[in-house]
Amino acid sequence: MEVGDVVKICTKDTEYVGVVLPSIDENTVVIKMKNGYNVGILKENIEKIEIIEKGKKPEYKLPPLGIKKNPNLKNIAILSTGGTVASRVDYKTGAVHPAFTADDLIRAVPELLDIANIEGKAIMNILSENMLPSYWKKIAEAIKEEIENGADGIVITHGTDTMHYTASALSFMVDADVPIILVGAQRSSDRPSSDAALNLISGVLAATEPIKGVYVVMHGESGDTFCYLHEGVKVRKSHSSRRDAFKSINTIPVAKINPFTKEIEYLREPKKSEGTKKVKINTNLEEKVALVKIYPGISSDILKFYVDNGYKGIVLEGTGLGHAPETIFDGIKYAVDNGVVVVMTTQTIHGRVNMNVYSNGRKLQKLGVIGCEDMLPEVALVKLMYLLGNYNVEEVKKLINKNLVGEIEYRSRFDCY
């Protein structure tokens, strides 16, 4: 039995028929069944294996589609960083392969032809949990190159786990007069419940709009009816597996997108493009910035570790309105005395930081902690990296609470989206 073979596996209670897949566990046989789902079967439970059909070595080369550009449509560049949204399935082996070229994307999602002229390029192929700040720079440089080569909009396919970090980083690093849309998928393209195609269609639709800035497009509810356009510095992944995992925090989404009718309903005013397609990037980042979650009894030793290892900034993810226990006060003082910028966010997700309400918050401010009134911890982390990479410490302290790219709203919108 080899990968790619069609087999029938009999256990004491059940029979499974499917294509043999690679398995990372030598004690388990993994097959893809006809319904599209994978099943792992412990070898010790297998009583009989019957090979129904021997698999053939898959051939991935396909003839070019030869599609000509439509002069009436906009030119959209789709940059792949990995993830499952832009991928194709080899049903001989069950493997999911990244869709790197325009032809791959169009074969996977032919509806794109009716929306825009598509160019596809792979700039990396990683799991999003392996994303690095240095990769954000590479993505920014690729965006600049595509816009200078004539792209009217950019779509970036990205794994969902850290997509909101990348969206935030690009919001600060890239100043472009075109839409930059990050798109992911919660369910891979080899699953019947995949959200990949509709998210990608909606992302490309958004990329053709006369707007600018960095956004995230994902399912708006658990079914297949619409997607939301979220501002890149106001969104986070709020569920591990639901298709509507991405939510706008302390605000509402920018727009509601219907991938079937191609209609876009704006829920609030977007940043309007001026039609110039100007682009400039600033990839200076101070990578030695830490995000520390506050918990009962947290030790000052944690902050001292970062300071002693050369970190220039620390974002505290505090409790409530921006609080931290006295057990960490000594560490905060040590950090501030050594020139480290320490800022406070909240782990409550919704709501704002206000360190003037309770005595704990006022004590923290006296120690030198700067409250970030309306910023997600992830956004504060990236913003502090950006500021420390471009300004001196005193300027950083002034700018951390200045709205630069829409990361701060002085009045929260608590509509449920």
UniProtKB/TrEMBL annotation:
<dbReference type="GO" id="GO:0006520">
    <property type="term" value="P:amino acid metabolic process"/>
</dbReference>
<keyword id="KW-0436">Ligase</keyword>
<dbReference type="InterPro" id="IPR040919">
    <property type="entry name" value="Asparaginase_C"/>
</dbReference>
<dbReference type="GO" id="GO:0005524">
    <property type="term" value="F:ATP binding"/>
</dbReference>
<keyword id="KW-0067">ATP-binding</keyword>
<keyword id="KW-0378">Hydrolase</keyword>
<dbReference type="Pfam" id="PF18195">
    <property type="entry name" value="GatD_N"/>
</dbReference>
<dbReference type="GO" id="GO:0006412">
    <property type="term" value="P:translation"/>
</dbReference>
<feature type="domain" description="L-asparaginase N-terminal">
    <location>
        <begin position="75"/>
        <end position="270"/>
    </location>
</feature>
<dbReference type="Pfam" id="PF17763">
    <property type="entry name" value="Asparaginase_C"/>
</dbReference>
<dbReference type="GO" id="GO:0006450">
    <property type="term" value="P:regulation of translational fidelity"/>
</dbReference>
<dbReference type="InterPro" id="IPR027473">
    <property type="entry name" value="L-asparaginase_C"/>
</dbReference>
<protein>
    <recommendedName>
        <fullName>Glutamyl-tRNA(Gln) amidotransferase subunit D</fullName>
        <ecNumber>6.3.5.-</ecNumber>
    </recommendedName>
</protein>
<keyword id="KW-0808">Transferase</keyword>
<dbReference type="InterPro" id="IPR036152">
    <property type="entry name" value="Asp/glu_Ase-like_sf"/>
</dbReference>
<dbReference type="GO" id="GO:0004067">
    <property type="term" value="F:asparaginase activity"/>
</dbReference>
<dbReference type="InterPro" id="IPR037152">
    <property type="entry name" value="L-asparaginase_N_sf"/>
</dbReference>
<dbReference type="Pfam" id="PF00710">
    <property type="entry name" value="Asparaginase"/>
</dbReference>
<dbReference type="InterPro" id="IPR040918">
    <property type="entry name" value="GatD_N"/>
</dbReference>
<feature type="domain" description="Asparaginase/glutaminase C-terminal">
    <location>
        <begin position="288"/>
        <end position="397"/>
    </location>
</feature>
<dbReference type="InterPro" id="IPR037222">
    <property type="entry name" value="GatD_N_sf"/>
</dbReference>
<dbReference type="GO" id="GO:0050567">
    <property type="term" value="F:glutaminyl-tRNA synthase (glutamine-hydrolyzing) activity"/>
</dbReference>
<dbReference type="InterPro" id="IPR006034">
    <property type="entry name" value="Asparaginase/glutaminase-like"/>
</dbReference>
<dbReference type="InterPro" id="IPR006033">
    <property type="entry name" value="AsnA_fam"/>
</dbReference>
<dbReference type="InterPro" id="IPR027474">
    <property type="entry name" value="L-asparaginase_N"/>
</dbReference>
<dbReference type="InterPro" id="IPR011878">
    <property type="entry name" value="GatD"/>
</dbReference>
<comment type="subunit">
    <text>Heterodimer of GatD and GatE.</text>
</comment>
<dbReference type="InterPro" id="IPR020827">
    <property type="entry name" value="Asparaginase/glutaminase_AS1"/>
</dbReference>
<feature type="active site">
    <location>
        <position position="237"/>
    </location>
</feature>
<feature type="domain" description="GatD N-terminal">
    <location>
        <begin position="1"/>
        <end position="52"/>
    </location>
</feature>
<feature type="active site">
    <location>
        <position position="161"/>
    </location>
</feature>
<keyword id="KW-0648">Protein biosynthesis</keyword>
<dbReference type="InterPro" id="IPR027475">
    <property type="entry name" value="Asparaginase/glutaminase_AS2"/>
</dbReference>
<dbReference type="GO" id="GO:0016740">
    <property type="term" value="F:transferase activity"/>
</dbReference>
<feature type="active site">
    <location>
        <position position="160"/>
    </location>
</feature>
<feature type="active site">
    <location>
        <position position="84"/>
    </location>
</feature>
<comment type="similarity">
    <text>Belongs to the asparaginase 1 family. GatD subfamily.</text>
</comment>
<keyword id="KW-0547">Nucleotide-binding</keyword>
<comment type="function">
    <text>Allows the formation of correctly charged Gln-tRNA(Gln) through the transamidation of misacylated Glu-tRNA(Gln) in organisms which lack glutaminyl-tRNA synthetase. The reaction takes place in the presence of glutamine and ATP through an activated gamma-phospho-Glu-tRNA(Gln). The GatDE system is specific for glutamate and does not act on aspartate.</text>
</comment>
